Please model this.
Amino acid sequence: MKKVVTFISLLVVSFMPMAALAIDIPATTPPPGIRSFEGILGVMNTIIDWLFTALMVFAVIMIIYAAFSYLTAGGDEEKISKAHKTIVYAVVAIAVAFLSRGISFVVQQLLGQG
Model:
């Protein structure tokens, strides 16, 4: 139990700066509602930005968890295999996060809004 509490405490402390940097405070308040196509693109970009941030945070947490599992496996092949699969899933989450940004950029360029 002590190891779990220590692990969670380290996660919380290590992600505080990342959480502080993830906050995007707009300079002006946008008007309420969507009134044009640019407004729709703005909402899409906001959703993609939130998705990107969430996937990156999730991937980092999973990599740290997999490293912890790997270190505490003690040579057990099943635990090592589980840790390896967790790392693979975290890498897939990172790839999906970067693809979400790339697809957004491509769509905006095709529509002439970039």
Residues 37-114 form one domain. The two ends are 51 Å apart (CA to CA). The chain has three helices and no strands. The helical segments are 2-22, 37-71, 77-110.
